[in-house]
Amino acid sequence: MGNGNTVAGLFEIGIDASSMGIAANNRLSQVSFSGDWGSAKLGRVWGAVSSAGLWNHCVGVLQACGLPGTQFRVSDTVAMSAGVGGLDLVGDLQIADGDVSRWTIGTSVDIGSLSIGASYADAGADDFTMVSFSTSLGGIGIGAGYGTGGGSDGWAVQSSFAGLNVQLEQVDDAQQATADYPIDLGGATLKILGSGGDGDTTIGARIVYVL
User: Is 122 among the domain residues?
Assistant: First the structure.
């Protein structure tokens, strides 16, 4: 586009291993514009809450933190990000039936090895507030987050060491523990996954290969 600005498109395709077919839902499909001013994305994008470290306390592989107000991929959305005075600012507008159904604004800042994030979302009848932090001490990553809104509140804590990620979260009375461990296969990564809570346990594996 010139003047340091670029435009790009992204279209994800997911594979449903259970049916050996295309998983049509929950994939990204977006057009993005970026430059020295920041970036803007339109379409199905990562929501502002999942940007700029606002959920960096979560394992985010098998079952990311489900704190009140958490969003991941969101449709019919305009998302923007910019750096202002050392702060990473993010925001999004989600459209439904020709009107704004939800808007979110958030920020994160790094102070040495400490990363702090906060966000606020207005979803009409409900609003949501989330704060989080993460840091690394002696090679051990730790983080925590708290979210409230929509009549619920919850917290999450996470730690990473030697590739192993362990997470504990609780929303209202529901508690869940999650862990994952990556194994380098040379060009690909195999992730062993486990999650359990309220009597349910899930074990799985995920292969990540980048072309």
Answer: yes
Any domain includes 168: yes
CB within 8 Å of 130: residues ≥ 6 apart: 49, 54, 55, 67, 68, 69, 70, 106, 117, 118, 119, 145, 146, 147, 148
What pTM value is reported for the model? Answer: 0.80
Report the CATH number at residue 81. Answer: 2.40.160.10
Whether residue 1 lies inside any domain: the answer is no
Coil, helix or strand for 147? Answer: strand
- Using DSSP bridges, classify how beta strands 99-111 and 38-46 pair: parallel, antiparallel or unpaired: unpaired
Instruction: Give the pLDDT confidence score for residue 60 in this predicted structure.
Output: 45
Residue 76 has pLDDT above 90, yes or no: yes
| Residue 163 CB contacts under 8 Å (≥ 6 apart), including other chains | 181, 182
Place of tokens 């996954």: 193
**b or e along 73-104 (b: 16 or more beta carbons within 10 Å of the residue's beta carbon)?**
bbeebbbbbeeeeeebbbbbebeeeeeeebbb
Torsion of CA 128, 131, 48, 46, to 10 degrees: -100
100 pLDDT more than 80: yes
Which domain does 15 fall in, by range?
6-209
